[in-house]
Amino acid sequence: MRSTLLASLAGYTGAALSASVLLSGGTIIAFDEDTNFLNVIRDGALLVTDDRIAGIYEEASPKGIPVDAEIVDCTHKIITPGFIDTHRHGWQTAFKTLGSNTTLAEYFMTFSSYAAGPLYTAEDVYESQLAGLLEALNAGVTTTLDHAHNMWSTERAEAGLDASIESGARVFWAPALDPTYDYSVPDQINDWKRWNRRSFPNDLVTLGIAYDGWDVGAPEDTQAVAQLIKDAKPAVLTIHWLGGVWPIDSSPSLVHSFGVLNTSTAVVFSHGPGLTAAQAELLRATNQFISITPESEMHYGHGHTFSHLVHEQAALGVDTHLTFSTDIITQARLWLQRTRSRLFDEVMHHWDIPSRNPSWCPSYFSPPGACSQLGTSLSVNQAFLLATRQGALALRRPDLGVIKVGAKADLVIFDGRTPGMLGWADPVAAVILHANVGDITHVLVDGKFVKRNGKLTYAKYAELVERFLASAEKIRKDFLKKPLPVLTGSFFGAEGYAFYGSAKDVDVVRGKGTGYGPLFRGADDKTTANVAAPGSRHDEL
Ligand SMILES: *[C@@H]1O[C@H](CO)[C@@H](O)[C@H](O)[C@H]1NC(C)=O
Ligand SMILES: *[C@@H]1O[C@H](CO)[C@@H](O)[C@H](O)[C@H]1NC(C)=O
Ligand SMILES: [Zn+2]
C-alpha cells in the first residue's frame, strides 16, 4: 500500500507493486567491505525488498525467497549500482545542442544562471528539470547532486524542487544561495528555511545548499550563508571551485576559514583547476571531495591539471548536460582515457615508450602506501568506483553506489547480449568501455523500476515531452535573439591577469581557410547564415 501511494505521487502509477523483487541469473558487480573492493558474482541473484538490497546470492535461484517475490530474469545481464552524478544543473535541459562550441568564458554570458534567468518561467524550470532528470534515469544515473542555480525567484526556485520530487530520481537538491536580480540572499535563506521545514512526499529528495560567493560575494551574504550551514547542518554543501587561470577561487582553505568545511555537512567542490598539494591535504584531512566533470572541463576549457592526483577524494559529474550526454559511464570512460593519455604523454615527453598501463590496485586504501601510484593510476575498476561508490562517499552516503546487503536498491541492469556488449568476459570493462545508454534494460531507484525493458516507466512521459518541447522552443527563440558575446580584453574586466587568449584553429576540410563552419541552431536562427561563412575565421592565415 505504502509503495503504491508513493509511486503514484511520483507519477509512477504502473510501477512496482510487489514488495520484493528477485533479479535472477545475472553477473553482479558487488562491493566487498572486507577487501574494500569490487566483487564480481557470476550467475547470481539479488533480492530487493522495499527500498533495500535484502540479499545477494551466488546462485540464480536461491532458497528462502519470499513467496510473493516477483522474479525478473537477468540471465546474460550485468547488474551494477546506480551511477552517481555529483555535479549538474538540471534546469538547463532546454538549451540542448546550443552550446556545442561554447567556452566557459562565453558560457558566463550565455547559458549561466546570470545570463539565462530572464528566459525561464517557473513552468519552464519545471519541464527542463523533470525532462533532464528522466534523461538521467534513462541513462542509469540514479543519484544527482543538483547545483540548482535556477534561483531567480521563490516560484522559479520551487519549480525545480517540485520537479525533482516528481522525477522519482534520488536528488540532492542544492539551491544556490547567490544573489540574483530581485532575489536577495536574505530572501533566499528564508525560503530555504521554509523548504527545510516542508515534508516531502518521499525521502528521495534531500535539501542541500550551493554557494559560490566565498571570495567574490558580499561579506554579509557569505556570513549569513555560513551561519545557516552551521545552524541547519544541511546534508551537503556544493561549490564551484575554479582558481588556476581563473580570478575566482572558492578553495577548500577559504571555505574552511568560514568554519563550514570540517562539520557533518558533506562538501563537494566542482572542478577545482586551482588544486594544490595543500588544498588536497585539506580535502583529505576533512574527508571532502572534488567533482571531476571530465567532459565539461575539456569542452569549456576549465582546466584540470592535477585532478587525477586526488582520486581518493574525487567523484564524477556531468555538469551542463545541455552540451553533451548525461550518462556517467561516458564520463568514467572519458576520464579513464584522459588520465591514461596524460600519463603516457609524461613518459613520451622524455622520449620514452610507455611500457605498462597503470593497473589495478587490489588494496584500494589499505594498507597505507600499498598503492603509492593510486593517485596517478587508473584502471576500469577504479573508473567504475569513481562513477559509483566515490560519488556516494562524496555525499557521505555509504548506503549508495554499492551493491551490498542493506544498501539502497538503486540498480542498473545492462543487457550483456546487445551487438556492442556481446563477447565480454570482464563485466567492469564491459560497462566502462563498451556499454552505452541503449544497453541499459532496467533501472531501479529505491527498489522501484524507473526504467523497465528499455523504457522509462514514468506514466506521464508522453505529455511531458510535448510540454518540454514547447518550452524549449520558446526559450531557444528568445536565446537566439541575442548575439553571441565577443570576448575582448580580460575576464570581466580583471586587471593584470585573466586576459583572453585564443586557441589554435584546426580544419577538417582540405584547403586554405576552410573555416569553422556554421552552427545549425534551428529553423528560427537568423544569425547562423552570416556567422561563419567558410573562411571567416581564417582569412588572416
Ligand atoms: C576537523 O575536526 C576534527 C574533529 O573535530 C579535528 O580533530 C580535526 O583536527 C579537524 N581538522 C581540520 C583540518 O580542521
Ligand atoms: C562557435 O561557433 C560560432 C559560429 O560558427 C562562432 O561564431 C563562434 O566564434 C564559435 N565560438 C568558439 C568559442 O569557437
Ligand atoms: Zn557547474
Keywords:
541 residues, alpha/beta, Urease, subunit C, domain 1, TIM Barrel, five-stranded parallel sheet, 30% helix, disordered N terminus, disordered C terminus, binds 2-acetamido-2-deoxy-beta-D-glucopyranose, binds zinc ion
Helix content: 25-40%
Q: Structural class of the helix and strand makeup?
A: alpha/beta
CATH architecture descriptor text of the largest domain: Alpha-Beta Barrel
- Please indicate the count of domains: 3
Question: CATH fold name of the largest domain, please?
Answer: TIM Barrel
CATH class of the largest domain: Alpha Beta
CATH H-level superfamily title of the largest domain = Metal-dependent hydrolases
Strand content: 15-25%
Mean pLDDT: 90
Q: What's the main sheet like?
A: 7 strands, mixed
Number of DSSP strand runs: 20
Rg over C-alpha atoms, rounded to the nearest angstrom: 23 Å
The rough form would be described as: globular
End-to-end Cα distance: 71 Å
Contiguous runs where pLDDT drops below 50 for at least 5 residues: 1-10, 359-365, 368-376, 529-541
Bound molecules: 2-acetamido-2-deoxy-beta-D-glucopyranose, zinc ion
Task: State the helix count.
Answer: 16
Order of strands across the biggest sheet?
A: 3-2-7-17-18-19-20
Keywords: Hydrolase, Metal-binding, Signal, Zinc
Cofactor: Zn(2+)
Organism: Xylaria multiplex
GO molecular function: deaminase activity; metal ion binding
